[in-house]
Amino acid sequence: MAELVEIGRDPDAFEVFYREHIEKVQRFVARRVDDPFLAADLTAEVFLAAIDSAHSYRPGRGTPTGWLYGVAQNVVSSERRRQARELRANQRISGRRLVTPDDVTRLEDRIDAEAGARELLRAMDELPQGERAVLELVALDGISPQEAAQILGIRAATARVRLHRARARLRDRRPPPVTPLVDITPEGTS
Q1: pTM for this structure?
Q2: 98: which of 73, 116, 150, 179 lies 20 to 30 Å off by Cα?
């Protein structure tokens, strides 16, 4: 069937191929999978994989049906490997609480402690990249301007200038502090 290579390019050729092979593929998958939804998904994946790899079909190496069964075998095997990985991952964590109440409390404390840093990061979003990089290293990571320059591959003087500019831009953008209005009139007088 020389038309097999066309299924990846010609929708009509694919439709003929699909109609000719859908029942065979469904039976193949149904013999290996007992979940009807998974069987439907895998059948669709087989035909998608066939479209993608139609160019690799060689008539001298077997029939189109045999080739398609090979594609189906690869799809089913891939799903089995995925399920096995998922099962192993679930077994590793089953019976364990991933986060204890104490962990949640510590995380909440950490999140609260880092509120100022998050606010600074949001304010830094509008800075030019070079200035932001230096400011992050110095203000958030506690690295000296000289070390920041080394990390970024720039001169120390350039790092200090960028740091100065970044701080100035942030000061200019910061809203003035709100001073609460205090009623200074003594009680009983109006």
Answers
A1: 0.50
A2: 116
Structural contact between residues 146 and 171, judged by C-beta atoms closer than 8 angstroms:
no
Of 48, 26, 56, the closest CA to residue 38 belongs to: 26
d(CA 17, CA 168): 68
Please list the rounded mean pLDDT of every run of 10 residues in the chain (190 residues).
77 93 91 90 96 88 85 92 90 70 81 78 84 87 87 93 93 62 54
Integer angstrom CA distances of residue 139 from 32, 84, 154, 167, 174: 58, 46, 18, 10, 16
